[in-house]
Design brief:
alpha+beta, S-adenosylmethionine decarboxylase, six-stranded antiparallel beta sheet, 8 strands, about 50% strand
Length: about 140
Amino acid sequence: MKRVGRMGEVKELGRHLIAEFIGCPASVLDNIEEIKKSLVKAAREAGAQVCGEVFHKFKPQGVSGIVIIAESHLSIHTWPEYGYAAIDIFTCGTHVDPWKAYEILRETFKPRQVSILEFKRGVNIGEGEEETKRQ
């Protein structure tokens, strides 16, 4: 999808990857320390400045977590019993490469299948009402 305004263009402020990792080892998806280490490494290797992190281990299984970066965030929620992880990588600005973070996470979680979408996030810098058009 390309977003355009009636009287101007949309200024890209960030990139947002939404990924589903399917067929991951349950042992990795239930390991809070490995997940934390992987998300922080992914953020740093993508060029982001890590500001903080919060992770939670569920009983009997599963992990949710977020790494706050100066440029936005990386987050995850896992379902080890299904071999599934839902991942968000949202970066603002131009110096952070969300695809580099994605590659680090893919190496860690070793999914058999991946579904991924990329959204350009931004605002209309022209006048008029904004529309969304599919291309």
